[in-house]
Amino acid sequence: xxxxxxGSHVHxxxxxxxxxxxxxxxxxxxxxxxxxxxxxxxxxxxxxDIRFIKGGPVHRVRLIQVSGKKGERTIRLYKKGLPVxxxxxxxxxxxxxxxxxxxxFTSDQFHIERNHRVAEALAMCIAAGIETRPYILPPxxxxxxxxxxxxxxxxxxxRHLKKIADDETSKTSYTRIIVALFYPGGVYAAYNTRASVMxxxxxxxxxTQGSLLELARMNAGLNEVSAAVLFGQSADVAIKTILESEKxxxxxxxxxxxxxxxxxxxxxxxxxRLLRILVTxxxxxxxxxxxxxxxxxxxxxxxxxxxxxxxxxxVFSHLDGDIxxxxxxxxxxxxxPHPEPxxxxxxxxxxxxxxxxxxxxxxxxxxxxxxxxxxxCK
Length: 378
What we know:
The chain is an alpha/beta fold. The chain folds into three domains: 2-101, Arc Repressor Mutant, subunit A, CATH 1.10.10.10; 125-281, no CATH class; 285-377, no CATH class. The protein has helices at 9-20, 34-44, 92-99, 109-127, 158-161, 203-220, 235-245, 255-258, 269-278, 283-291, 323-335, 351-358, 369-377, and strands at 2-3, 22-24, 48-51, 59-61, 64-67, 74-77, 154-157, 179-183, 186-192, 227-232, 261-266, 308-310, 313-317, 343-346, 363-366. The chain is globular and about 70 Å long. Mean pLDDT is 89; it is low at 167-173.
């Protein structure tokens, strides 16, 4: 007998599958213990007795199926087990059938890959405590200006954004973006590069930003969409993405020109904790106030970007994983030498990436995530 309790592995798995349609087996570690989840997957591939509350009705069903080649295996719900979804949320079965064409999936690798990108980002948001269920979130609209978005962080999937207007938005308006991540006071365009280099389409991403800005104005009262979240499997992906972007023949189409801030978030538990920081209301100002005295802070003055000056050393914080700002910082170091080596603040898991990117241009100072999280909770 399997009892599906909120917060349990099986509950998280069903919540994710009902929203993304499928997930790669490689993403199981984002939901919890990979070993426990692998055991759970094997169990749910066979007929089991399922219930949601003690003493409640029992469903005797097979819940999931796994298919695909090794390394590219994908997990989906089993069709005869779909009625269980209404136990997660009333009416979820009908929502799921409408969203996924009556439970019809293509074998085309491009579509599977895109579903996997969405699923990994969803898993990260679930781990960060962000609402990811489209059937719970208030729907966005284009009928007029109104405060629609909730007072808590919410994850709106790009394929749903295309259907908001009656004249369905052109696919070119949402090229590589996978979600719009709203939080109190802001919004991120979110991308997932996985293990490959993100090659930006330039004009397509400009259209994406413009479309998202329209939604942000009409549903959240926001006047800019200047930040993005870039998920990826390792920091090396961020380096390669930066270098690929620098090859652009049209500087105005570079990804760091389209979005002034691009926060690289690794697809692991450290990334989930960083994501939780990035959706905290007024997180940047609160973080800088916790790190520095007012007389030390730069307040965006000067010929280059940095956050504070302590004695003769300038201090730059990379605690937010902003690789667009990091590019500008490194470029400025080549033009504006300082008598003392700059200091870069980072988390321990960011240090190797920064050493390889900045070389000997700056000294690193590592801070524990627990201390930063505690400072933001005050």
